[in-house]
Specification:
5-stranded antiparallel sheet, Alpha-Beta Plaits, 186 residues, 6 helices
Length: 186
């Protein structure tokens, strides 16, 4: 990553219709924008889904992304959560080899220190769930790597504005793009 390219977490509210995710991802692909991680789920209003997407780029590139995504027909709102006070978490599930009782004890000790959870166990492996900031996940993985991580899946960052920031989230200046006709449908 170049020094002028910062990581940004985008929250994209789209109509919950077939193909909307493909439209957003296609826009990124077609314009050469990079997607680090992607998560999609329905909102409390079943007519909408929220995409949490992590990307990186210069301020000019991020501004272009916000404008281009905001132009998509069924996009109601695009917010760069990196520009507002937010809560961010990532989850990882991993299987760690435990060839010896000492290895198993080491995994269990690290699980306790990092406030992770053992969710499955066998004679030669432990499945662990960990949730937290990206640097916490990375530190945990770094300590488990010598024991042999057999498999891993990660959500990538999930984020939501802090309660105080949600009410005060800026709606101009490249931070958020709200589409008026979609706003009235919400």
């Amino acid at each position: 990553m170049r020094p002028d390219e910062a990581r940004h977490i985008l929250s994209i509210l789209v109509e919950n219709r077939f193909g909307e995710l493909c439209r957003v991802v296609g826009l990124f692909s077609g314009r050469g924008f990079y997607i680090d991680s992607l998560s999609v789920a329905p909102t409390p209003d079943p007519a909408f889904s929220k995409i949490i997407l992590t990307t990186r780029g210069s301020e000019a590139v991020i501004e272009q992304i916000l404008k281009q995504v905001g132009k998509l027909v069924r996009v109601s709102e695009v917010v760069d959560l990196s520009e507002v006070d937010h809560v961010e978490r990532e989850m990882a599930l991993l299987i760690v080899g435990t060839a010896s009782p000492a290895d198993r004890q080491e995994v269990l000790n690290l699980v306790n220190v990092f406030r992770a959870k053992v969710i499955d166990i066998s004679p030669d492996a432990v499945t662990v769930e960990i949730t937290g900031q990206q640097d916490k996940i990375e530190a945990f993985l770094g300590l488990l790597k010598p024991l042999g991580i057999r498999d891993i899946v990660r959500t990538g960052p999930l984020a939501i504005p802090r309660i105080s920031a949600a009410a005060e989230a800026p709606r101009a200046g490249g931070v958020a793009v709200v589409i008026p006709e979609a706003e009235s449908a919400v």
